[in-house]
Every structure is written in C-alpha cells, then in structure tokens.
C-alpha cells in the first residue's frame, strides 16, 4: 500500500491519542490532513496550528473540509459503523483504513521497533524513543502518551528508525511487521474484544509471527505469559532475548530505589552495568532494560542508551506530578488493570513515606469491572485511604448491577465509594494532610480531578 494513498487523509476522532499522532506525522510529511472530533481539546488546537482542518462534531459534510475530498478515511476501533462520516465514506467507496493500518503505511521503509504487552508498553516505548534521541538517531515515533521531554506523542524523524507502541486491545498490532518486538508481559485483559483468555494469548503469538525474518523478540522472563511466549517463539525459530530477575542472558541482578527513581545492576554480555532510571519502581527498571536491549538491536551505542534512559523524565499520566498544596503531593496515573494498580501502588509506597497514600480510583469499562472487581479491591487495599468512583464506560453500555461499589465493597482498607464526581475534591482534601501523597488513577476522566483537588486544598 503506497503512502500516496494518505495524501489527503481524513481522521475521524482526530484528537485521540493514537489518531493525533498519525495526523502529526502526516502533516510533517507534507500531507493534507482533515478530521473531526466530538469536542475541542489541546490536541485538536495543536493540530490546527500545524495546518490540519478540523471540525468539532461528527457530520458527513466534514469529508469536504478539503477540495476534492479525502483520498482515505482513517478510523479507530472506537468509531462505530453508524458514525455519519464513516457511513458517508463507505457510500462514496472511499478507502477506509484502521489507525494501525495507516501507521503501518507510514512505517514502510524504516527499521521498526514495536513495543507490546498488557502493561508498560507506553513507558517502555517512550524510554526507547528518548534513549535513541539521546544517541542522536532522531527516530520517528508514535506513542500512546505524550513525552514529558517534548510534550508530543508522535514525530517524523530524519533517521531510519520508527518506534511504535503496539496495541493488542483489538488485535490491530497485527498490521505491523517489526524488526524488533518487545513484549513486556501477557496477562488477561480486553476480553470484551477477544472473548477468552486463550484468544487474547493467541493474538500475541500471531504478533510474534509478524517479526521480520532475522529480527528479534525481547521478552520479560519474570512474567509467566511473556516467558511462555518467548519459549514458543524460540521453538519456532525466532531469535529471542530475555530480561528480568530470572533471565539467564540479561539478568537484573539487583534494584535499589533512590529519590524519585532507582538504580538497577544488570548482567549484560558477560559483565555488569548500572542502569539508572529517574522514575520510581522496579517495574520501570524492567521496562528500561527492555528498551536498552531494543536500542542495542537497532544499532545504538550502549553508553548513549544508558545516558538517555537516565534522562528519561516520564510520560504524561504515568505517575505524573500535578502539584503540591498544604504539604500534600498530588499525582496522576493511567493504571486501569489490577496488576497495574498493584504494581504502581507498591512503587509509590516508598515515595509516599512517611505520609499516607491516598488513591482515587475510577474503574474503566463495565466488563473489566465485572470480571476483576475482587482483584481491583486487593490491589487498592495497598493504599491507606481509597476513594472509588463510578465506572467510566468508554465504549460500553452500562451493565445492571455493575458499578464502582462492586470494588469498594471488597476493599479491606479505609474506603469511600463516591459516585458523585463533583464531591470528590472536597472529600479528598478532608482526607489528606501534610506529608501525604494523593494519586488519581484510571484510564478515564479521573485525570481531571488532580487540579481540582489542589484547588480545594488551596482554599483550605
């Protein structure tokens, strides 16, 4: 498929994390870009400044934002078949591409690195990107979050490398053919799409089969799902490098937390190296190790990669510091799976000490809440105080009997179920005191609460 197909691209839902990245790369390559989104946003404003023509609201007439209409219409899984712009595109016989298919077109001619996994893929992709930038390789990249260093989620680079976060949620990462694929972990999720755990695991096997001949799979040996995937891949003739505490070739020998981050000692190529990470948690050190191995495979120098990873300042919505008021520190995090929640809270605990850890959690998807309510409760019980909001339904319709109360009722620490979004800032400001750490957590609009909590603390 030729990139010329995207000469005049129209993106439905252009303000989304993945779609805005594609639009940014297309604009940098001199393509005409139009699009629409349900509401105004910072991403929409930024794309307009760069030359995109964007309508707020969904309407068939939006396909005429450029004379001659679009050469292709790009959609994500979130766009329903009833969307008026998609309906009009199909009526006209226009080429309709899924977001991943369009990204695959943009990758053509590059040496591609894709980072996949149930958890940690955004952070790992971002670490790899920043490390390669530090080595002055100027990679193109598309990530599901904004880098703190540049504030961007995508870039058209001058180098011959393309780094992308690979989304398994709908199986769309099967559009990619990477030279190096990283799989951080494989754990049951997105069963609303895949149906069964077995089907979810199987899609990772299909992804590994997409690795170019002679390419590399980088897999975490500490995660049972990733380790099993690596074994199957190796049996099928794929070259594999494993990392982690239990890995034989790239072993994390030790990890010590430091202020705001940590230091890992890694056995690599017969010697030991020190890997510094400026974000907290051993899980982040594991992600950094995966990024290091992928960078080496792409030809970057070890010293430059180590320096770049040490300089990595994080990703928005990944333990992102929002501010401090009256001695209370407020952070925001994207964790929305039980394992992610537990891992992040364990990592945050040393940072919160000696104060209390207060978490405001918003469940994401009714199906995920129903399937994992007990596991969410166990993870959240690692905090001192828990505030559970109602479910952010996203693409799902409400399910009878499924609400945040399912989780709150099973939490074993002090817990508050608060279905009213507006009352949360006052509640949290009353719970948190000098020295405490507050973290808003979830994949929905819970991210909006951090500034409101800080404002309420200021008023007091």
> In percent terms, what proportion of residues is strand?
15-25%
Q: What is the arithmetic mean of pLDDT?
A: 91
Topology, number of strands: 21
Integer-rounded radius of gyration: 22 Å
Our count of helices gives 15
Low-confidence stretches: none
Strand arrangement within the widest β-sheet reads 8-7-9-6-10-11-12-13-14-15
User: What's the end-to-end separation, in Å?
Assistant: 59 Å
CATH topology of the largest domain: UDP-N-acetylmuramoyl-L-alanine:D-glutamate ligase
Annotated CATH architecture of the largest domain: 3-Layer(aba) Sandwich
**CATH class label of the largest domain:** Alpha Beta
Features:
Protein-Tyrosine Phosphatase, Chain A; ten-stranded mixed β-sheet; 21 strands; 23% strand; 3 domains; globular; alpha/beta; Rossmann fold; 15 helices; 460 residues; six-stranded mixed β-sheet; UDP-N-acetylmuramoyl-L-alanine:D-glutamate ligase; 35% helix
Describe the protein.
There is one protein chain. By secondary structure, this protein is of the alpha/beta class. The chain folds into three domains: 3-98, Rossmann fold (3-Layer(aba) Sandwich), CATH 3.40.50.720; 109-311, UDP-N-acetylmuramoyl-L-alanine:D-glutamate ligase, CATH 3.40.1190.10; 320-459, Mur ligase, C-terminal domain (Protein-Tyrosine Phosphatase, Chain A, Alpha-Beta Complex). The protein is built from 15 helices and 21 strands. The chain has helices at residues 17-28, 42-49, 84-92, 99-107, 121-134, 191-194, 197-209, 224-235, 282-297, 302-311, 338-352, 366-380, 405-408, 424-431, 449-459; strands at residues 8-12, 32-37, 53-56, 72-75, 95-98, 111-116, 140-142, 154-155, 161-165, 180-183, 216-220, 239-244, 250-258, 261-268, 271-277, 320-325, 328-333, 357-361, 385-388, 414-417, 437-441. The strands form three sheets. The protein has a ten-stranded mixed sheet with strand order 8-7-9-6-10-11-12-13-14-15, with helices on both faces. The chain is globular, with a radius of gyration of 22 Å. The mean pLDDT is 91.
């Amino acid at each position: 498929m030729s990139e010329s197909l995207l000469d005049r691209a129209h993106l439905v839902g252009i303000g989304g994390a993945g779609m805005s990245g594609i639009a940014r790369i297309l604009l940098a390559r001199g393509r005409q870009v139009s699009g629409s989104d349900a509401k105004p946003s910072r991403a929409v404003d930024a794309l307009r400044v760069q030359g995109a023509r964007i309508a707020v609201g969904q309407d068939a007439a939006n396909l005429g934002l450029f004379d001659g209409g679009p050469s292709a219409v790009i959609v994500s899984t979130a766009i329903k078949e009833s969307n008026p712009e998609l309906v009009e595109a199909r009526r006209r016989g226009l080429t309709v591409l899924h977001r991943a298919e369009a990204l695959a077109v943009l990758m053509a001619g590059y040496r591609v690195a894709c980072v996949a996994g149930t958890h940690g893929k955004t952070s790992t992709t971002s670490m790899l990107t920043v490390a390669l930038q530090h080595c002055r390789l100027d990679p193109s990249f598309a990530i599901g979050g904004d880098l703190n260093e540049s504030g961007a989620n995508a870039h058209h680079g001058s180098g011959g490398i393309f780094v992308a976060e690979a989304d398994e949620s709908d199986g769309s990462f099967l559009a990619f053919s990477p030279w190096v694929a990283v799989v951080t972990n494989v754990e049951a999720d997105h069963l609303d799409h895949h149906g069964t755990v077995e089907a979810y695991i199987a899609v990772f096997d299909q992804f590994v089969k997409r690795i170019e001949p002679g390419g590399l799979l980088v897999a975490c040996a500490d995660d049972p799902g990733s380790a099993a995937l690596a074994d199957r891949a190796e049996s099928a003739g794929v070259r594999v490098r494993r990392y982690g505490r239990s890995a034989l070739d790239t072993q994390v020998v030790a990890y010590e937390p430091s202020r705001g981050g940590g230091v890992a000692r890694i056995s690599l190529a017969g010697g030991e190296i020190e890997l510094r990470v400026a974000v907290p948690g051993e899980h982040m050190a594991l992600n950094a190790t995966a990024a290091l191995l992928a960078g080496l495979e792409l030809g970057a120098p070890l010293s430059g990669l180590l320096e770049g990873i040490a300089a990595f300042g994080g990703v928005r919505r990944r333990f992102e510091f929002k501010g401090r008021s009256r001695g209370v520190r407020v952070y925001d995090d994207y964790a929305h799976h039980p394992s992610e929640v537990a891992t992040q809270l364990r990592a945050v605990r040393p940072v919160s000490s000696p104060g209390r850890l207060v978490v405001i959690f918003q469940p994401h998807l009714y199906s995920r809440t129903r399937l994992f309510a007990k596991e969410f409760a166990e993870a959240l019980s690692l905090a001192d105080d828990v505030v559970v909001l109602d479910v952010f339904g996203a693409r799902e319709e409400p399910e009878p009997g499924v609400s945040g109360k399912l989780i709150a009722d099973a939490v074993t620490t002090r817990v508050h179920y608060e279905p009213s979004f507006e009352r949360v800032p006052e509640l949290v400001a009353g719970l948190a005191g000098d020295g405490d750490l507050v973290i808003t957590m979830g994949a929905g609009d819970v991210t909006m609460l951090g500034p409101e909590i800080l404002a309420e603390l200021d008023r007091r």
